[in-house]
């Protein structure tokens, strides 16, 4: 059982380049989210999805796109990378159980934009 | 809008002592959930404990307990009998629904260091 898998773990981009951060989960969870973590600011929600075909914006969505064509995958696309997008990105998935939510995060992707 | 406040940037605690990490929150939602996560130096986010706003009893998970005081809007994490492996960043977070974490608001975290 792999849980939540993020690829790549590290990435360096030049300003203006585009790329996709991959996120896959094998737990059949309905809910998936993307967060970014900047020093001293905690994690901030970028986009989230409550099921296949349904996505919505979080607190800091500008410069990012998402789609959810399957339950398992929730890729995050950077359209035109900027130095301000240098951060650690976390994908998360969860489901609503009778005893409360079970929440899991991926290992994170450290992105540097130069 | 939801807000989480963690006022302790760093804490040093002697091994085997209990430690309380503070978390206060602000929300206008009638139904919400409160979470604690641990982030060791390796960087992964580890889910520790959850408390629903309508739960009558404080949540417990092994050495972790959540001291939920709804009227004070506080959700402090208590770690009993601390261990060296507890050294990490700890984040308090809340969701706008009673279950699920599709939308989480995080605090800025507390760095806990356990001293042998």
How is this structure best summarized?
With 114 residues, chain A is mainly beta. Chain A contains no helices and 11 strands. Chain A is globular and about 45 Å long.
Number of E strands of chain B: 12
User: What is the CA–CA distance across the termini of chain A?
Assistant: 36 Å
Radius of gyration of chain B: 13 Å
Q: How would you characterize the largest beta sheet of chain A?
A: 7 strands, mixed
Give the helices and strands of chain B as they follow along the chain: EEEEEEEEEEEE
Shape estimate of chain A: globular
**Helix tally of chain A?**
0
Please indicate the percent range of residues of chain B in DSSP E strands (runs of 2 or more). Answer: over 45%
> Could you give the order of the helices and strands of chain A?
EEEEEEEEEEE
Helix content of chain B: under 10%
* Whole-number mean pLDDT of chain B: 92
What ranges of chain A have pLDDT less than 50 throughout 5 or more consecutive residues? none
How many beta strands in the DSSP annotation of chain A?
11
Residue stretches of chain B low in confidence (pLDDT < 50, at least 5 long) are none
> If helices are DSSP runs of H or I spanning 4 or more residues, what is the number of helices of chain B?
0
Largest sheet properties of chain B: 6 strands, mixed
Tell me the structural class of chain A.
mainly beta
Task: Give the percentage of residues in beta strands of chain A.
Answer: over 45%
Radius of gyration of chain A: 14 Å
Shape of chain B: globular
